[in-house]
Each structure stands twice: as structure tokens, then as C-alpha cells.
Write a structure and sequence with these properties.
With 414 residues, the protein is of the alpha/beta class. It folds into two domains: 257 residues, Crotonobetainyl-coa:carnitine coa-transferase, domain 1 (Rossmann fold, 3-Layer(aba) Sandwich); 91 residues, formyl-coa transferase, domain 3, CATH 3.30.1540.10. The chain contains 16 helices and eleven strands. Strands 3-2-1-4-5-6 form a six-stranded parallel beta sheet, with helices on both faces. Strand 10 and strand 11 form a beta hairpin. Helix 1 crosses helix 7, helix 6 crosses helix 8 and helix 7 crosses helix 8. It is elongated and about 80 Å long. The chain starts with 12 loop residues before the first strand and ends in a 31-residue tail after the last helix.
């Protein structure tokens, strides 16, 4: 048996040349399970997830950065500079995986594409997470979640019905991060079995379509029908929806997925008379009269707090749940009982856990997202054995942000 105290990916080293959300989310999941993830940061254009504010080093303390890049190391390198590019090449020699999510051609232009890296380390795994992949007519385009959502078709399913305006989902970065992590794990297993690395071309557009649109595309191919947005409803059962409760923007989700649950719901809201109402005698009938059901249920929930509604309906055997804010989630007793919320080992706060567990293994939060260049000396001197003179200090006047139109602030070194 293996050492139960070791995380499964301990000993795996990953160079993370990603920014924003999708790429960092992929490497964060692997860092949670023990991989040593070294995030390469460009001082003149900091990752936007750091927040873009320089005063009082707020870029080192943004909660979003701490969460998305937890358990990682930060090294500041200017890959346009031959000296720093050489440091990265030295690091590749002792690395298992390199991940980037820049537009096609950026890594090749820096001499850091797969063809160059595989000459440095023949079994290297390189994951490229571009918006549209390395081939095809859109390969050269830049992109992010805001354009991937409509182009993948996902946005066509948002809204409450066919007459309402589509809205942003804002979660495809998370989905693509999971896809990226799975691609890396598959490549690591392949290398373990064959001794060979891989170049992985992950199109975030295609990954989104694959992950979120499959059943809808199958429906369209089989029937020719255009899937329509359902809002909070379901295609087969009724009632289902989100209902306003007492309080400011408070809601509860309720579903009756069978005739028995429908009967229990009627009893729980004091409307047993609805059980014998011909309009609601079957799931099909309830679907046709969903608007009337929503008015009845909504009138009952509007007088009650969502937590009270949730407890009452769950006790009656009806699926129900409070539509939770971030504050609600931070103190949710179910998440607490499941051990989903983790107190960081460095006492930087509590963080959400992973959406799955491995048998006997808890992936914890060892440390918050790193300060800018926090691990320069460790990586450059201790890991690579290079002199301290190779460690360039991070100077405030050199720092630019991803929100700057023309790079660093006026007067800053470039």
C-alpha cells in the first residue's frame, strides 16, 4: 500500500504559463492534489485575477487570486528577455507538464512551443488551452468566455423562454479548467504506461460544446428541433422553479419529480385540494398549467423565509433548496458536514474544496495564492542551482496590469 500521508500528485511538477481563469483553474485542481505548480508571471502585465490595483500591494491580497491560484508558487520572468527565457528552459528540464492558454503562435514566437520544449525534455507534456484550438479558420483568433459561450451554443439555452434575451453563463472557464486537468491526467497516465509525452491541443470552444451541449445537439440531430431555453423549469416534470421568498432577493428552488412528490407538495403548502384538480392530474397536465402552479406556489413562499421553506418541504419529502448567496454558502451546514470548506494550513482563510474526492484522500489548501514573485529565490536558486544574482527583484515601478491600455504606469520602466 502507498503512503497515506502523501497526496497522489506529489512529485509531479507543472509550469503554469496561464492567466485569467480557465488555465489557472486546471492547474489549481492538480495543485490541490499535490502537484508542484510553478506559475510564471509577467510583471509588466500582471494577471487580471490579481485585481489590477497597485496601492498597498492589493494585487497580492485579492481573494479571487488567493482562491484560484492557491497551492501554487509564483516566479516572475520576462519571457521576451533571453536571460529569463533561459531560466525557463532550465526549469523545463526538471518539469513534467507545461500549460499555456495564450493565443496560437504566442508560445512558438517565444521559442517555447512544443517542438522547442520536446528537444529540451523528450517526455514533456504540453497542454495548449487556446480559445479555438491550433488548427482551423478561427485558430488565430483570441477569445475568452464571453465569446466562447455564444459560439458554442450554450448561450442560446439561457433566458426564461424563447422570447427573452440570452444572458452570460460565466462558468465555461470552470468547465474548461476541469477539461484541462483531465487532459493532463490522461497524458500523465499515458506517459507512465509508454514513457512518451504528448502535445495536447485543447480548443476551449470545442470543450465547452462537448461538455455542455451534447444532449441538445443530439436532440437537434435526431428531430431537427431547435432546443429552447427552459429558464428554471424542466422538460419532463412540473412544477419546478425558483420562487421568491420573504426578504431582499431571497429565493427557493422547488421541484416535484413524481406524482407522489406532487401530492406531498400540495399537503405541505396547505393546498390538498389541488391533488384532485384536473388541471394538475398528471405531469403532462401540470406542464401545460405551469404558470398557474407558479402563482399558487409563489404566493405561499412569498410569506416565508427560504430556509424555513427548505426545511419544511424537505421534511415532507419534497425536493427543495435555498438559492444561496456566497455568504449563505460560507456557513451552509451541509457543506460543513461534507467537509467541502477547507481552512488553509497557512491560516489565510477558508476556501471551497474540490467537487469530488478520491478514496481515502483529502485534497486540502496548503497556502493561499502566492504573492507576486514570492518564490523566485526558491525556484531559481534552490531548484535550478543558479546564483542569487539571477533573481531580479520585483519593483513597484515596473508593475503593469492586464487592464492597462499602454502597459505600466507613466514613468515606469518597461
Amino acid at each position: 500500500m502507498g503512503d497515506a500521508s502523501r497526496l497522489p500528485l506529489e512529485g509531479v511538477r507543472i509550469i503554469d504559463i496561464t492567466h485569467d481563469w480557465a488555465g489557472p483553474h486546471a492547474t489549481r485542481m492538480l495543485a490541490d492534489f499535490g502537484a508542484e505548480v510553478i506559475k510564471i508571471e509577467y510583471v509588466k502585465r500582471m494577471d487580471g485575477m490579481r485585481g489590477g490595483r497597485l496601492e498597498n500591494q492589493l494585487y497580492n491580497r485579492h481573494p479571487r487570486w488567493w482562491e484560484i491560484n492557491r497551492n501554487k508558487l509564483s516566479v516572475t520572468l520576462d519571457l521576451h528577455d533571453p536571460h529569463d527565457a533561459e531560466i525557463l528552459r532550465d526549469l523545463v528540464k526538471i518539469t513534467d507538464v507545461v500549460v499555456d492558454n495564450s493565443r496560437k503562435g504566442v508560445s512558438d514566437g517565444l521559442g517555447l512551443g512544443y517542438d522547442a520544449l520536446v528537444r529540451i525534455k523528450p517526455d514533456i507534456i504540453v497542454l495548449s488551452m487556446t480559445a479555438f484550438g491550433q488548427t482551423g479558420p478561427e485558430a488565430s483568433y483570441a477569445g475568452y468566455g464571453g465569446c466562447i459561450e455564444p459560439l458554442s451554443g450554450v448561450q442560446s439555452l439561457t433566458g426564461y423562454d424563447h422570447s427573452t434575451r440570452p444572458v452570460r453563463v460565466r462558468e465555461v472557464d470552470v468547465t474548461n479548467g476541469v477539461m484541462g486537468a483531465c487532459a493532463i491526467m490522461t497524458a500523465l497516465v499515458h506517459r507512465q504506461q509508454t514513457g512518451r509525452g504528448q502535445a495536447i491541443d485543447l480548443s476551449q470552444l470545442e470543450a465547452t460544446t462537448h461538455a455542455l451541449m451534447g444532449p441538445h445537439l443530439m436532440e437537434h440531430m435526431s428531430s431537427g428541433a431547435q432546443p429552447l431555453p427552459l429558464g428554471n423549469r424542466d422538460a419532463r416534470v412540473a412544477p419546478q422553479g425558483c420562487y421568491r421568498c420573504r426578504g431582499d432577493d431571497r429565493w427557493v428552488a422547488i421541484a416535484a419529480t413524481s406524482d407522489e412528490e406532487w401530492r406531498r407538495l400540495c399537503g405541505a403548502i396547505g393546498r390538498a385540494d389541488l391533488v384532485d384538480d384536473a388541471r394538475f392530474a398528471s405531469a403532462e397536465a401540470r406542464m401545460r398549467h405551469h404558470d398557474e402552479l407558479d402563482r399558487v406556489i409563489g404566493a405561499w413562499t412569498a410569506e416565508r423565509e427560504p430556509e424555513a421553506v427548505t426545511r419544511h418541504l424537505q421534511a415532507a419529502g419534497v425536493p427543495a433548496g435555498t438559492v444561496a448567496s456566497v455568504e449563505d454558502l460560507s456557513r451552509d451546514p451541509h457543506l460543513e458536514a461534507r467537509g467541502f470548506l477547507h481552512r488553509a494550513a497557512d491560516d489565510s482563510g477558508r476556501y471551497p474544496g474540490t467537487p469530488f474526492r478520491l478514496s481515502g484522500i483529502t485534497a486540502g489548501v496548503r497556502m493561499r495564492g502566492p504573492f507576486l514573485g514570492e518564490h523566485n529565490e526558491y525556484v531559481i536558486c534552490q531548484l535550478l542551482g543558479r546564483p542569487k544574482s539571477d533573481v531580479r527583484p520585483v519593483r513597484e515601478q515596473d508593475i503593469g496590469t492586464a487592464f492597462d491600455i499602454e502597459g505600466p504606469a507613466p514613468g515606469a520602466a518597461r
